[in-house]
Amino acid sequence: MLLGSIEAGGTKFIAAVGDEHMNIIDTVTVPTTKPDETMEQISNFFSRYHLDALGVGSFGPIDVDEKSQTFGYITSTPKSFWRDYNFVGYLKQKLNVPVAWTTDVNAAGYGEYLLGNANGTESCLYLTIGTGIGGGFINKGQILNAFSHPEMGHVFIKRHPDDTFEGICPFHKNCLEGMASGPAVEKRWGKKGVELADQSFVWELEAYYLAQALISYTLILRPERIILGGGLMKQKQIFKLIRNEFHAMLNDYVEVPDLETYIQPVGLNDQAGIIGGLLLAKNKLKG
Amino acid sequence: MLLGSIEAGGTKFIAAVGDEHMNIIDTVTVPTTKPDETMEQISNFFSRYHLDALGVGSFGPIDVDEKSQTFGYITSTPKSFWRDYNFVGYLKQKLNVPVAWTTDVNAAGYGEYLLGNANGTESCLYLTIGTGIGGGFINKGQILNAFSHPEMGHVFIKRHPDDTFEGICPFHKNCLEGMASGPAVEKRWGKKGVELADQSFVWELEAYYLAQALISYTLILRPERIILGGGLMKQKQIFKLIRNEFHAMLNDYVEVPDLETYIQPVGLNDQAGIIGGLLLAKNKLKG
């Protein structure tokens, strides 16, 4: 069995071919320019293989409603070349293969759920905290989508009493993404997160905001595990701070697993999205 | 077909017998005292009928994990007589009937989803805003439960710049429930909500907090409809305020249905929980 996977990001696309055991046979990375250019390179890459199915995790927002006329499209993205682009339609036409289609975070979450640090659980919340903040939730094997896919990085949080930063979200100013994304950290402190690794107050404040959001997600979704990925979560010292804040703020209101188990970094590192796409492709063949 | 329903609340239990068309044949209301007393009166009421199935929506927290040793129990409630009480076990022993078991808000949400103001949708978030704040989410016919059931009234929110009220949640002080529940309104203003009906600033502030939470729920769950019940939502003037705040704060970040359609009061009034229990009982016979 040969499976394809695309991790479609705002700056680059990664594509891979693998087998049903998740052995990766070939990969390519292509810059995100215009659909004509980027997608042609991707489809040329895949056309050398006879794929059985393809899984795509894309930047968004995207249309995931199978009953919609625009299912498989990227919709209202600020990247104008990609607005209202029929992503799945192009792939089906070029490659004539079943395509599983979801968001980048859902695909990465699916990878972590089945083969990463949420392996063995029944439900997993995956979050990426980097250029943006986004998340996906998988429960009993199903990715949560209802009216559309989640955009959970923009939840509201309470301000830390010592923090006067106004927030950078162009929509909500001081929502979670506006206060705690990579660009928010850089704007607040004047340096990138990676350059602030030894500044404990930076990570304490970051943990204060992330823990609040994790509590909201916990109370709404009740995941069995939370996996945190993305650039800022490479600062591994933050995990202890997040768990401590989470414990203090939740104040034992609901039962959660032991926090060392409950809140974990990614297990598949930068491969979560690509592996998730392969797993979604494999799953597509089942049903 | 004869179906039973129990709405098990912290101050009273309501039980009803109905048919598969949701015609209610008989009801009883019993004060919530001790399990021995309350449950005996409930089971005596039902024992006059030959029920095919029974649906229960209970105050919580409860154990909804069918694989758990304590499935069907009320668990860590502050009501000490009811702590670790085997609710479903008692009913099965007394009445020998299949029992569907969920939280009070999940049952009411299920009623609204199938026969109330979310009828015809694929996904519905139901919230009660009264003595406490709680919610349930139904998507494609399934009630969302993962590690356990949601407790979504305690999400964090940002403080209104003019509000100095410290909040009354014993766990989190200024979470949504601590700032916007019925007792929070009464503590902040010195009067019950119903006595403040003509004070527009009361409802503007209430809408400011509720709209934030509705945005968080929207971004995480992406429901097709939101139904708001509970005592405070009998102040119908608040719906317009909530929709206005929601529109302003979401700032068109994601697509949602027209807000008149999206955010609605209950359609089944005080019957949502009982009807939901009957529907859950009926559903139990299918699967």
Task: Name the quaternary structure.
Answer: homodimer
Compute the gyration radius of chain A: what is it?
19 Å
- Tell me the distance between the termini of chain A: 16 Å
Estimated helix fraction of chain A: 25-40%
Q: Shape of chain A from CA axes?
A: globular
The CATH topology of the largest domain in chain A is given as Nucleotidyltransferase, domain 5
User: What's the tally of helices of chain A?
Assistant: 9
Biggest interface reads: A-B, 47 and 47 residues
In the CATH scheme, the class of the largest domain in chain A would be Alpha Beta
Largest sheet of chain A: 5 strands, mixed
Order of helices and strands of chain A: EEEHEEEHEHEEEHHHEHHEH
**Into which percentage range does the β-strand content of chain A fall?**
15-25%
Could you tell me the mean pLDDT of chain A?
97
Write out the CATH superfamily name of the largest domain in chain A: ATPase, nucleotide binding domain
Number of strands of chain A: 12
The CATH architecture assignment of the largest domain in chain A turns out to be 2-Layer Sandwich
Q: Enumerate the strands of the largest sheet of chain A in spatial order, edge to edge or round the barrel.
A: 3-2-1-4-7
Query: Helix/strand/pairing class of chain A, anyone?
Result: alpha/beta
